[in-house]
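Hi Q.,

Before the meeting this afternoon, I wanted you to have the nicotinamide-adenine-dinucleotide prediction in hand. No need to reply - just skim if you have a minute. The sequence and ligand are here:
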Amino acid sequence: MSAVAGKIAVITGAGSRGGQGEAEARLLARNGARVVLVDLPGSDGAAIAAEIGADLAEFHALDVTDAEAWEELVSAVREGYGRLDILVNNAGVWLQKGVLDTTPEEFRKVVDINQTGVFLGMHFFAPLMKEQGGGSIINTCSTAGLVGGGMPHAYAASKWAVRGMSRAAAHELAPFGIRVNAICPGVINTPMIEGGEAMLDLLAATIPSGKVGQPDDVAQLVLFLASNASSYISGSEIAIDAAVSA
Ligand SMILES: NC(=O)c1ccc[n+]([C@@H]2O[C@H](COP(=O)([O-])OP(=O)(O)OC[C@H]3O[C@@H](n4cnc5c(N)ncnc54)[C@H](O)[C@@H]3O)[C@@H](O)[C@H]2O)c1
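Predicted structure with the ligand bound:
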């Protein structure tokens, strides 16, 4: 019996084919969890959920910056399952710009999705987890939330915020049995990396092992943090970057 069998999970940003959210949804479902894949309308979320199978997965369209939409999602999960065991705040966007070039609008947009989206997920689902006496929240940070140098400005700012919010929430929610951890992937081969094989080769050369990570590498960490096997781990940020930030 898998450590997440029978658990209910919500994963944001799970509608990108080849993305980390898809890999996480598939791995949790393979281990017997029931997964609600969340992403923007028009994403591949519905198709991916159908491929996983209606008995283990469903798609819910949601923009993570929309507080009302989060409230509706909580109501749907309450109605459908009566609980939520695992929340993976994975949705995010990249902006390859520095402090000189980022416009105020661009900065706000990145922060809105990468940071406020994570806050809203925790804010709206933590009460349900509190009622049921526990849960595991996994927030997707980045190497860009561990180091600042060389990272795009708004993206790094939003990911450092995710790390801080995760620690603060872990402390606050611990008395209710809710664990909160941040995961910090390095270079992972997903649609977020623009530039194809040439870019992946360039990036691989910056990694001590010479290897770019795969979405499944990150999904394995999410599975562990979602499961009771990690029951004493909370308030941590875990680098999954083959020593890039070491
Ligand atoms: N790929 C990497 O190298 C890497 C490294 C470190 C961290 N990350 C982080 O991992 C997470 C997953 O990224 P990925 O690499 O799988 O990229 P991806 O682009 O494949 O997936 C990101 C998903 O987020 C969704 N999304 C964007 N804005 C949204 C919104 N407003 N509401 C709902 N969904 C929205 C997108 O539709 C997409 O499905 C992100 O938070 C990203 O910042 C990625």
